[in-house]
Amino acid sequence: FFVPELIEKKRNGGKLSKDEIRFMIEGYVKGEIPDYQMAALLMAVYFRGMDEEEVTELTLSMARSGEMVDLSAIEGIKVDKHSSGGIADTTTLVLIPLAASVGVKVAKLSGRGLGHTGGTIDKLESIPGFKTELSKEEFIRIINQIGAAIAGQSKDLVPADKMLYALRDVTATVDSIPLIASSIMSKKIAGGADKIILDVKFGRGAFMKKYGDAVELAKTMVKIGNLAGKPTVAYVTDMDQPLGMAIGNALEIIEAAEVLKGKGHEDLLNLSLEFGAEMMALSGIENDRKRAKEKLNESIKSGKAIEKFKEIIKSQGGNPKVVEDYSLLPQARFREEVTAPHDGWIESIDALRLGLAAMKLGAGRQKKEDKIDHSVGIWLGGKVGDWVEKGKPLAVVYANDEGKLGWALEEVREAFRLSPEKVEKRKLIWARIT
Ligand code: URA
Ligand code: CA
Predict the structure, then answer these.
(1) Catalytic (active site) residue 112
(2) Is 339 helix (H, G, I), strand (E, B) or coil?
(3) 264, 251 contact by CB (below 8 A)
(4) Would you call 247 helix, strand, or coil by DSSP?
(5) How many CB atoms sit inside 10 A of residue 297's CB?
(6) pLDDT tens per residue, range 274-302
(7) 97 near 274, Cβ under 8 Å?
(8) Is 401 annotated as catalytic?
(9) What is the pTM of this model?
């Protein structure tokens, strides 16, 4: 193939063949195709899009660029869950022990947070001793023993995505549906799970700001998964306000533990029950959604769910007592409330603004090399549709840097809008796509 001809073909709206796509990805990873040619192709894809066959081939070529994880040594059907990224999105931390406590095999490969969205690996590392770098043998052994394990993605997983993402980042080609879909799905496919659940977020705190775009992204990823032989279900869910009450690493461990003890906020619980039921259906454990949710609720009530969380923590070297004694988690020096200036209903909470505020307090990274402060963050006092009285907390800010504290308090204040009139709660689950 002659690279300029392939670029021209896509530029003119043509369709690339499987061989042509594979040639471009393999050549780029080997360093035979330079950045400037790949950048031109990405821009052509940005404007011209890709059809189902093209985006599936792109995804598979990317997935095969590095290690393909083999989980066949784990008995049963392995289900992976992935969120497109959100604020106070503690679902994965709740879901892994919850699903494992009813018999689902959970092999979770997670990333670190970047920018305003948190990463499960960072959150877990706020637990003293918790190890997220597991060898393949350890990972498989733990799942076979207790039903779940969570490990950081190895450096060899989908090198093509690392290269392409870095190039997209500097060429204004990140927000393209085929490029996002192939980026996410290549990592899921290389990760080795049999079936996949996707949580595609939309709203102020999400990649996709508009509902219609989130639906299109979800449909594209479901198509890719199914064509690649990995049955995939996608949910489109609200990320206009934060999902849970906690934003920040140790704080989210506390919130996950609260939900697993039956004391958490209803939104995070409901989303976890929905995904838990979906995982039970996909693994062939329980097809009836209502009965599945009953089993999950029963697991919370009986204490099985929180026990499973402790088991997971212990098996990965962490101190399981943190789920009973939260003072064993990293503590911030300053803890200050933002109070309601007057009575009212919470009308909106700007998820992105809170996510960025938490990041700048130290809960997240602006650059890959940044170190995280596990103790800092924000705990919400209410969500959209809740009534608050003057002087009651809208949120509590946890900080270690007195200089940043004042700034963060102001950001949090600005993120809340109160209304004198009653406000409806926001709908959480908008679509389920199969
Ligand atoms: N998440 C990814 O992994 N890739 C993208 O391109 C966007 C979100
Ligand atoms: Ca309140």
Answers:
(1) no
(2) strand
(3) no
(4) strand
(5) 16
(6) 999 999 999 999 999 999 999 999 999 99
(7) no
(8) no
(9) 0.94
- Pair 100, 69: CB distance under 8 Å: no
- Does the annotation count 240 as an active-site position? no
Could you identify the residue written with the tokens 């919850």?
98
What structural domains and CATH numbers belong to the chain? 3-49 (1.20.970.10), 78-323 (3.40.1030.10), 329-419 (3.90.1170.30)
User: Which two three-digit tokens encode residue 315?
Assistant: 């098996």
Burial class (CB in 10 A: 0-12, 13-18, 19+), 57: buried
> Interhelix angle for 289-302 vs 91-101, to 10°?
90
Residues 374-399 pLDDT 10s: 999 999 999 999 999 999 999 999 99
Residue 61: active-site member? no
Closest CA to 393 of 337, 335, 351, 345: 337
246 CA to middle of ligand 1, Å?
23
Which atom of ligand 1 lies closest to the CA of 180?
Answer: 6
Q: How far apart are CA 184 and CA 216, in angstroms?
A: 14
* Nearest atom in ligand 1 to 183's CA: 4
Tokens of 81: 């869950």
Residues lining ligand 1, Cβ inside 6 A: 84, 180, 183-184, 207
First to last CA, the chain: 36
Give 114's pLDDT tier (boundaries 50, 70, 90): low
Q: What's the gap in Å between 189 CA and the centre of ligand 1?
A: 14
Q: Where are the beta strands (DSSP E) in 56-114?
A: 78-83, 105-110
CA 156 to chain centre: 20
DSSP for 135-162, please give it.
-HHHHHHHHHHHSEEEEEPPTTS-HHHH
pLDDT tens readout for residues 179-209: 999 999 999 999 999 999 999 999 999 989 9
**Residue with token string 């947070």:** 113
For residue 165, the ligand 1 atom closest to its alpha carbon is 6
Residue pair 116/205 in contact by the 8 Å Cβ criterion: yes
